[in-house]
Specification:
heterodimer, A: mainly alpha, 90% helix, B: mainly alpha, 7 helices, 0% strand
Chain lengths: 152, 146
Amino acid sequence: MNRRRDNMTNEKHINLMDDEVTSNLVVEDQIARNITELLNDRAQQLKPQQEQRLSAARGLAIDYLAEQQAQLASGNRVSQNGNALRWFGQHLEQHRVTSVALILAVMLLTFFAVQHLSLNNNLENSDAFLLASDLPPEAYADKGFNAWLDSN
Amino acid sequence: MVRFQLGFKCLLVLVSLLFNGLAIADDANVTWAQLTDSQRQVLNPLASEWDTLRPWQREKMLDIARDYPKMSSDKQERVKKRLANWSRMTPYERENARKRHQRFKDLPADKKNELRKKWHEYQNLTESERAKLRAESPDTYGDADN
């Protein structure tokens, strides 16, 4: 019984609060309408000097807006030209780990390729191939043989 | 995190290079007993004098043993025959031989044949005649260091 009474009291409180909010909105709306009417009335009674100043201010605002839009357009053109670089930068940023791994892999591959090539080049120049040559090593080292070739 | 990973990878590369360098240095100090079977087989003509060789001489001989399997059988036979003489040559003589061998390799085939014949003719000279020729010829090359 007591609980039902409490519920009814709460509902009454909520209804009262809703009514208060609604009446506040109505009052604000009325104030805004009054302000608009007042401004419209006064706007009809402007002096020529005031009209001129307003017109000049409007002109300035339009010029400023046009300038802003022109700057924005030229900025877009620049960013379009730098799209590839920006894409590369973003790509690098987003895939930093992959990029680092890729660079390292390329470096390692280059290192091993250079080593492999230099090994192959050195192979033909190694002492083993000198020993296996058509002439024995003594023929290459013998000063007398060289002198004998010159004299014959 | 990425910087740490990058640093770690660089460190790994450096450590592997360092160990590679240490392994090469160790190779030069290896005794005859420490050689592998295949190395001993190639370097057999040097068995008695291996442990008296200087580290850089051992290193050069080990290079020969490394390249030996890549050769044809007749070239391998030549290497074995000439290895002992090669190890007894002075560093200066070896360096001269390398330089002249380079020039010989660049010669056309007919010139190479001619030189082979000339070498055989030179071998037929007496030892005193060859010694005289050696004494008369000036040193063509600078100092050699290995």
